[in-house]
Design goal:
Order of helices and strands: HHH
Number of strands: 0
Low-confidence stretches: none
Mean pLDDT: 89
Shape: elongated
Oligomer: single chain
Radius of gyration: 16 Å
Largest sheet: none
Number of domains: 1
Strand content: under 5%
Distance between the termini: 52 Å
Number of helices: 3
């Protein structure tokens, strides 16, 4: 009998965390180096931020489909971690009013 690899080590487990981290870095970098004032029109940074978050949806769905039947407790913990990462990436947008 083989041991089940932890779901977080699978690409669908950690890629959403990386994408959320990139989105957070993009918002913080934009607010730090460009402007923290709300803009009249969305720029490239806003579109990249939205794209990063939208790309997470199919990856998280694939993760849930693959891992929830195999290791429900571990998969639920990773899904909670992914949701927390998304919330952390969205927090500066909410606080800065972008």
């Amino acid at each position: 009998m083989t041991a089940i690899q932890h779901p977080l080590r699978h690409p669908t487990g950690f890629v959403p965390l990386i994408l959320s981290g990139l989105a957070l870095a993009l918002v913080v970098g934009y607010a730090t180096f460009v402007s923290s004032a709300p803009q009249a029109d969305e720029g490239t940074a806003a579109h990249l931020f939205q794209l990063l978050l939208v790309l997470e949806i199919p990856v998280i769905a694939a993760f849930a489909i693959r891992w929830l039947p195999v290791a429900p407790t571990r998969a639920a913990a990773v899904l909670a971690l992914q949701a927390l990462a998304i919330a952390i990436a969205l927090l500066p947008v909410y606080l800065l009013g972008f």
